[in-house]
Structures are given as C-alpha cells and as structure tokens.
Amino acid sequence: MDDFGSESDSDYASYWRDWFISSRGNEYFCEIDEDYLTDRFNLTGLNTEVQYYQHALDLVTDVFDLDCDDDMREMIEKSARHLYGLVHARYIVTTRGLAKMLEKYKKSDFGKCPRVMCHSHPLLPMGTSDLPNMKAVKLYCARCEDIYNPKSSRHAGIDGAYFGTSFHNIIFQVYPALIPTKSTERYIPRVYGFKVHAAAALIRWQNTQRDDMRRRLRKMEVETGFKDGEDDIEEDDDNDIEEDEEIVGAVELNVATAGVLVPAVERGGVA
Amino acid sequence: MSTSSGSPESWIASFCSLLGHEYFAEVSEDFIEDDFNLTGLQTQVPMYKEALEMILDVEPEEDDEDEEDEEEEEEDVSGDARDTRPHAGERRHHSRIASDLSVIESSAEMLYGLIHQRFICSRAGIQQMSEKYESNHFGVCPRTNCNQTRTLPVGLSDIPGEDTVKLFCPSCLDVYVPPNSRFQTVDGAFFGRTFGALFLLTFPEYDLTRSGNDTVTSLTRSQNSDSDMLNGVFKKNIAPGLGPNKIYEPKIYGFKVSEIARSGPRMQWLRNKPQDINVLDEARQFAEEHGETDDDDESMNLNGRAPARRRPAGNARLRQQQRQNQNGSPMAIEANGAESEL
Ligand SMILES: [Zn+2]
Ligand SMILES: [Zn+2]
C-alpha cells in the first residue's frame, strides 16, 4: 500500500511532484523526471490544452513564484494537475517511464484483477481515449485481456487520457517476458451439478472459437501462450466424468425437495 | 419455546446485520424448524443441537429460573457436555461454560450458513434474494463492458472452508472477487454453487441489459414469443455483456495489435458471442443438418428460418448421437413447469 502522508499538502510546494504522486487518489501516477519536464520538445502542443500553462509548468517544476490570491492559486493548481497528467501519458511510453510503471505493476500498485480465474493478476491503468475529458481511467488485465472499472471512487474520476490507449499494450511489447500465460480455466454455471443449457451452448461456441484461433496461430507458427497442458486443442472440451445433461428453461421450485437436492459427489465448481 | 423477549433482536437478524453479511437472506424460522430441510447437517456441525437452539433463540425452560446457579453446576456435567443424545439438551444447556459458548457461536454461524445455502434455493428464500437483488445488495460487475450489471453472490464449492463468496455476473457469465475486503471472510459454501444459475432460471424475465443504477425491469414475451426465446431464455438475456462490440481490442497508437504478435490477443473468445445468436440453437442446427423434423409442425416459419425452439427435439437416443457428432450437444433435462413458467 502506498503511504498517504497526511502532512503533505500544497505547503510543500517546493516538491510539487512528490506531493502529487503521494496524495491519496494519485496512486496510479509515477514521478516524471525533471529532465523530461524541462525539455520543451516533450510538451509540444500542451500550451493550448492547459490554462495558465506557464504558471502551471512552473508549479510542477518547483519554480513557481507568482504572488496571487487563493482563487487564482487554486486555478493554477488545477491546471498543474492537468498538465502533469497529460505529460504523464507521454512519459510512461518512454524507456524511463515504462521502467517506472513496471516497478509499480510488480508491486500491484494499480490493483489486482477482480476476475476469480485471473488469481489476483496485477492490473495496469489505461485510457479508452487519448483525448482529455472523454473517459475515466480503466484497468487492464493482461491475463484475461479485459478492462475493469477501478473499485475505489477516488480513482474512478481520474482522466483516462493521463495514461492513454497505448501504454498498457506497449509495455508487453517492450517486456515480452511479462506476458502472462493464458488459461482456459473458466466458470460454468450449474444447478444442482447440472450445466444450464443456454450458458453451456454459448460456452461450447466460445470453445470452438478458441480452438480455431489456436489452429490459426499454429499454422503461422506463432506461440499460443496457453499454459502447458492447456495448449492442446481438446477434442472434448466439455470434459467431465460427469453427465452432460443440462437444464433448459425456467424451473419450478419444489419447496419440499429444493433443500436436499445436493449432489452426492462434489467436484470443483470450476471446470 | 422461542423467547426473543430478552434480546431486542433475534440471532438471525443480528447475524445478517453484521458488517460483511450484507449478502445473506434472513432464513425463516419455519424453514429451520422443518427437520426435513436440515437433513444431513447434524454430522457437519459440532454441537449441532446447541447451535440450532442459538440460531432459533431457544433457551431451555429452566434457564429462566435458575440463571444464577449456572456457574456452580459446571462441574457436574462437564464430562458429558458434548453428549449428542437428543434429550440431554436441557441439562447441557444449563451449564454452558464460556469456551463452549464460543464453540457454539461459531457452530451456529456454520450451521446458519449451510441452512442458508439450501434456503436461498427454496421458493421463499429465492424470493427474498430477488428483493435483495432489486435493492442492489449484491453490487455490480466490475467489467467495463458489462455496464454495471447487477451480480449475484455464489460459492465455487458447496463444502464449507474451501473458498470465499464470489459474485456471478449474468452479463458476462464470469465470477469476480467482491470489491470490499470485508467479504473475503465470508464462506462461499453459505451461498453455494447452485443459487446463481438457479436464480436466473427462476426469474428469467429480469432484463439483464439494465445497469445496476437503473431500477429493475422485466422483459415480456411478444405475440410471436418463440422469436424472443432461445435455449429456454430470452435471447436478449443471453450474456448481454459479450459479443463483437463488447470485446476489448488492444491498440497501439490507434493500430490494432495483431493476433500474430507475441503480445497479440489470445482471450477474445472468452468475451465473444455469435453475431447471430440463433447459431446457438444446437437442436435446430442438428435438425437442419440431419433433415430431422419435429413432431409438431412449427418447424417452418415465414422468414425462411426455422423458429428457435426452447428445447431440443428428438428422443434421448438421438440426442446421444447428436452429442457424439457435434462434440457436446444438449441433452436436456426438463425441470417441472418449464413450459408454463416463462
Ligand atoms: Zn483478469
Ligand atoms: Zn460482467
């Protein structure tokens, strides 16, 4: 967990970036190097995007010395945060930035995948748009390749553009060893041990899609990336020692029997 | 027998109001008092009888008079305190020692959980859970493309002590860890493997495309009801969070990451769904492929497509064949009232 030092406040203006990244709610951000911030080339185009650009930049780089009232100060503060976010999106796809985000990823600073079958795989922050003020930040799981909403409301309001649409994919191109093994492990809805037909039919269809993909990849001699033993195209994906009987449609609950209809033999709920 | 006069709240009500117990329904005393519903639980829970009495707020009659003597009588009975003979109850009770109380308390929680697993699959229990579902007690799916669909608490095992409670999302058919750590001490077996799917079969009309921020609405069948339904459920309710525009497409600077790349997508099948949902009508497909016609005459339809059937046609032997041919086709069990209940 991060430390949310409560004594840090905007009083510590001389270390604005320190304060910013250690503030509660800003756990997803890494610290942008001073060198990067002071190279104007990296900030190209941001002067039109950010109000009070020069003051905001001064604040972020700890050279702010404007004498102004609190309202003005507040506006500049807000602009500084916006500027930091926009530069952050560019910084995290640089070699230095990727390395810093990698460290945070390894510590699960961005949280863990809520999907049970992902077994707490660490997440990466991402945007679904590169333009600011469009979409809030989401979290990407490289194991299930899906995106999730941050569970804390303090993260739900962060602009996704501060991370961008590419960073979380670039990081796996730069560090291919980080690509997690994929798994076919999944949840299968059941009623008293029997699969539910509607869900089972969809799952069968999805399994054929997966097998088709594996065949395509194999033909092109590309690694499929699945766990050992899961790499084979299973002809009976429906597996199961058990009967393939399925329940169709709605059920009429029988009060007398519902309580005791527990299957005699238990298998894991996951197949 | 049941005296709740001493305490302001019943044991069940106070258990359900504990932090982290928000997913639990209040099991009715009627359900617990029917021995039939408790079949097999005696052997699963230590100090079963005491635990059951605690759940029902039952105290042996003498306790009212002899409360003060309780401490002194301890020695008398410590030897057979764990006796399970049914009629030994009164004496045992009477002399509970403190350590027994904590054993009984945890047994009561275990017993309540196991009864709860059964209760929420009964008519009264599932009804109560539907009210909790409507009031958003179970939270929403964390997956972005599920658009905050309401989830249902489930267990991955029916055996206590194996795993904690999870949330099942009917929109993506996947299970998630509850967002708050207070649920990470709640046993999944107290909800069990059956409840989630049974809930959807029992209440097929809930519109699963609705977000948890909206109020719950019901789907209704139109005149030509067969076109709304597939494989026994509303087509609209078949994994509404999955399918072509609900799959995350990885991109770098606007360009899709190719499948051929080492870091390319490998899991899209998990979130996929056929564009034409009728592809999932395996029975109809089988019939078409094998020129099988059904006994009833609804197999032709004006738009040139055979109607979606709610259950596979043919007899068991045929279905068996079909399963072999197609790598797993439906062999349907009809539960009671499947036809009439929708
Ligand atoms: Zn995941
Ligand atoms: Zn979902």
Tell me what you see in this structure.
The complex is a heterodimer of chains A (271) and B (342). By secondary structure, chain A is mainly alpha-helical. Chain A is built from nine helices and six strands. In chain A, the strands form two sheets. Chain A has a three-stranded antiparallel β-sheet, with no helix packed on it. A three-stranded mixed β-sheet of chain A has the order 4-5-6. In chain A, a hairpin with a 2-residue loop joins β4 (190-191) and β5. In chain A, α3 (53-60) packs across α4. Mean pLDDT of chain A is 85; it is low at 1-13, 235-243 and 252-271. The model of chain B is unreliable at 62-94 and 294-342 (pLDDT under 50). Chain B has 342 residues and is mainly alpha-helical. The longest helix of chain B is centred in the first third of the chain and has 22 residues, at 98-119. In chain B, 28% of the residues lie in helices and 6% in strands. Chain B has helices at 11-16, 29-33, 48-55, 62-66, 74-77, 89-94, 98-119, 123-134, 195-202, 282-290, 316-326, and strands at residues 152-154, 166-169, 174-176, 229-230, 233-234, 251-252, 255-256, 331-334. Chain B is elongated and about 70 Å long. Chain B has eleven helices and eight strands. In chain B, the strands form three sheets. A three-stranded antiparallel β-sheet of chain B has the order 1-2-3, with no helix packed on it. A two-stranded antiparallel ribbon of chain B has the order 4-5. In chain B, β4 and β5 (233-234) form a beta hairpin. At the A-B interface, β3, α7, β4, α8 and β6 of A face α8, β3, α9, β6 and β8 of B.
